[in-house]
């Protein structure tokens, strides 16, 4: 019975050595099969790939199993929401037209089982992160993206990979301070009446109650693969590595 809303974030396919990537992708494909059997809707909360730049007639090789497994989810009548993260440099229409996913460049506000959810990857919501806000405006500029798309894909993808590493290193090393951060952004949304505020981006798993709401961060599959599930008015974060015993743990930082 499909009675669950499922959430994943920060898989970063393509980041790690080939042997680890193969194990991680197999785990992800198994999760999509799990979603086919259990999900009412699936939410991908950004950074499914470590970098993604979509050309008009070309898409990146290396993720065939992931893409077909995700298409199987939508073809089974399950709505897939894909919120674009900071490593999703450019999407055109491949995921919407070929896979059938709903794509979002802005945060998503949705009501599930009577509860209000505010869902965002989280990049750009940290108040004191001015440097990234400037970078985001450049990377998401449609005119600059069109210019970039004229570069040969072999070169363009290599540059996107390098930029992705720079972005990840910046996020990892940045000192956001104790006052500002995604928790502060979540508190504001809860004050506005949201029951659940769900982010990714920071690679730090969190489930924290604040007043009448909850701040949730799904962490990263680089540390401990997991998914969020909302069912019967209850949210849980569930570890997923047990489906491939011993195979995914060697990818930890």
Q: How is this structure best described in words?
A:
The protein has one domain (4-251): Purple Acid Phosphatase, chain A, domain 2 (4-Layer Sandwich). The chain has helices spanning 18-38, 64-75, 94-99, 130-139, 142-148, 153-173, 182-191; strands spanning 4-8, 39-44, 79-83, 102-104, 108-112, 115-119, 196-199, 206-210, 213-217, 226-231, 234-239. The longest helix has 21 residues, at 18-38. The chain contains 7 helices and 11 strands. β5 (108-112) and β6 (115-119) form a beta hairpin. Residues 176-180 and 243-253 have low confidence and may be disordered. Helices cover 34% and strands 22% of the residues. By secondary structure, it is an alpha/beta fold.
The CATH topology turns out to be Purple Acid Phosphatase, chain A, domain 2
* Basic shape: globular
**Main beta sheet, described?**
6 strands, mixed
Q: What is the CATH homologous superfamily assignment?
A: Metallo-dependent phosphatases
